[in-house]
Amino acid sequence: MSVIYQRVALIGLGLIASSMAHAMRRGGLVGEIVGTARSAETRDIAREVGFCDRIVDTAAEAAEGADLVVLAVPVGAMGAVAQEIGPVLKAGATVTDVGSVKRAVIDAVAPHLPAGVHFIPGHPLAGTEHSGPRSGFAELYDNRWCILVPNGAEEVATQRLCSLWQSMGANVEMMDADHHDLVLAVTSHAPHLIAYTMVGVADDLGRVTDTEVINYSAAGFRDFTRIAASDPTMWRDVFLTNKDATLEILGRFTEELFALQRAIRTGDGDHLFDYFTRTRAIRRGIIEAGQDTDAPDFGRSVKHD
Amino acid sequence: MSVIYQRVALIGLGLIASSMAHAMRRGGLVGEIVGTARSAETRDIAREVGFCDRIVDTAAEAAEGADLVVLAVPVGAMGAVAQEIGPVLKAGATVTDVGSVKRAVIDAVAPHLPAGVHFIPGHPLAGTEHSGPRSGFAELYDNRWCILVPNGAEEVATQRLCSLWQSMGANVEMMDADHHDLVLAVTSHAPHLIAYTMVGVADDLGRVTDTEVINYSAAGFRDFTRIAASDPTMWRDVFLTNKDATLEILGRFTEELFALQRAIRTGDGDHLFDYFTRTRAIRRGIIEAGQDTDAPDFGRSVKHD
């Protein structure tokens, strides 16, 4: 495979950026990877793990001379990074990001980028509950989706970024920023807030001791705790910057939850049964779309006879 | 290992009962397993898979002469089964169940059992999103918890049932019925209802097409769909029979969710960050308690470098 970008700058070195570095190296997709992170500790760990060719101290140093700059910092920090790197970006460079919200990133970043730089926001739909430079691995994007928001960028530049993501294993879809934010509010942002809430409620209940909640969490709650273990800074920024869509979906959620609570209270078993039967079909669709395994319990430490 | 019960009757042949059969055979724990199910199709499949020594047509036939009778039918069906088998139970036999709710099962079953029969309700905290006689496997209970509710039963009978569960791989805990129902409302029943609701909301949103919701579900939503794919009949009965505890927890949940929604609306990032940081600790506790793996994304088809 030939080199797609000569020099790539990763700004922010958490799970997403480090996994990109591993995946780019796996495929021999880029000439050189330069990385930076705000914290000296993160930079030291990244040097130790060694997934970049060079680690530098500032975003401006990393971005200077890069053909592709990847903003992999929390959404709330992107504006300041864009302001710092804007003056040093080389003409014809591409700037992209990996934030979970797209409209707010465009509003924060675009004003700081000079003419002649291609800005193509992106969002790889992959992750684990782990974060930081030690958590990355090359296979994170294999067969996952990456959404790109061309936002008027030149076709050639967009295709080049698209081909990088495909070569890292991902399927690429183009989407409008607002539509992205609504779809993600449904599939990711609202579910995360709900999981955070339920885990918080369990933590609050003094009558149910910690050990009990933990020991007896084999059922649904365990999956909620995995979701709720995600990076707090990242998620704070997601909710603050995708406010409208998230609140709209949560409004719908609350309305439906009240209807089911009423069915429980009044003993309306048919309503519950019909509702639960309908939701099974969505799961079937996800497995058929290849986005999850059909193995029971996600294949957690079980073997079949 | 010596035989713990000579003859075991499994009434209901879904995931839980068939996994018990596989686990009992793995350990050579019982002399003979007799199974029955209400539907002829289920009985035929169970014969084909072959996890019982004999499949009979009625609960009474299965229970007659059995040393241990396991009620593995939906909670709402247990009273009728108890009424059917009560007259044929042999003196000194033990009756247990595997229902997700304990107070309602005691109320429905106990009145039908003759004196001289030991009734020890139980609840193995294990499962997958699959159901039916083909879905069972011997390892389902390995290192999972099984809660027993002795409810005044004789110590010797309780210890014998306890030893069966331990030999099937489970850790056993004794608990009062009402406390069980509250703990499970927190760790399982409320999370399931919430997952069902969120999946239902996604399904309703005409503006977000099915394919999008399915393709882009890599994040939290995918875990919700797994939970929401569980057996509709079983869950209908859980909510109808653990009504008070579930509604109480859902009330707390809604209260907390409203507080977080307000924080999003007013842009209170500190509140969100603090809340999300606190929930991370619970996840850590679950991993330390050995009830889940630390592998990213549950070890779903990813390999580490």
From TrEMBL, chains A, B:
InterPro entries: 6-PGluconate_DH-like_C_sf, NAD(P)-bd_dom_sf, PDH_C, PDH_N, Preph/Arog_dehydrog, Prephen_DH. Keywords: Amino-acid biosynthesis, Aromatic amino acid biosynthesis, NAD, Oxidoreductase, Tyrosine biosynthesis. GO terms for biological process: tyrosine biosynthetic process. One of its GO terms (molecular function) is prephenate dehydrogenase (NAD+) activity. Its EC number is 1.3.1.12. It comes from the Bacteria. Belongs to the prephenate/arogenate dehydrogenase family. This is prephenate dehydrogenase.
